[in-house]
Amino acid sequence: MYEALARGVLDEANREEVASRVEHLRRRYPRASRDALARRLVRRTAFQCAATGALLAGPAAYFGAIPFGSGLAQQISALNRLVLALAALYGRPTSGKDRVAGVSAGVAAGLSSEILRQGIVRLLREAFPRRPGARTFVGAVIGGVLGYGAALAIGGLAQEVFRGRRSLPLWARR
């Protein structure tokens, strides 16, 4: 699984797919500004990450356990594609540092939301031991919110960096 994730994140074919997605978006909304298109990309990715989080956390809360990393690969890939798409949209070629920073941010956001989902599933199991339906609903909602929030955070940061309003963190500039 991790080999496929690394290949999907670091593969050059991913850039071509992202570039064609950005061009399709530009053709579909020709009058939209870069920022408006960026918001569309961020929202679309946020909904994808929210759906993944909800679909994983809901049933996991019902059964009382969630396999670690089950949605992590999908979320990291989606966040990496978002960063690449925003770079293409703003006309910024992605250097090795940009890719490392994007992948690192995606991994950090994905791991954080994954760890939070794990903890929430445990808390729900203890709080509602005889109410699996309530655990499922609350787990799905919280899992969706965590995925959505992670994508918004990474998308907002990437958008600011590619617009030139914010620089990369010191560790990523070296």
The major β-sheet equals: none
Low-confidence stretches: 170-174
First-last Cα distance: 30 Å
Instruction: Indicate the radius of gyration in whole angstroms.
Output: 17 Å
- What is the global morphology? elongated
Count of helical segments? Answer: 7
Structural class: mainly alpha
**Overall strand count:** 0
Q: Which H/E pattern describes the elements? A: HHHHHHH
Strand content: under 5%
What is the averaged pLDDT score? 77
Share of helical residues: over 70%
Task: Please give a structural write-up.
It is built from seven helices and no strands. By secondary structure, it is mainly alpha-helical.
Write the layout of secondary structure elements.
Blueprint: H1 2-10, H2 13-28, H3 34-63, H4 72-89, H5 96-127, H6 132-163, H7 170-173
Give the gist of this structure:
By secondary structure, the protein is mainly α. The protein has helices at 2-10, 13-28, 34-63, 72-89, 96-127, 132-163, 170-173. It is elongated and about 55 Å long.
List keywords for this structure.
elongated; mainly alpha; 7 helices; 174 residues
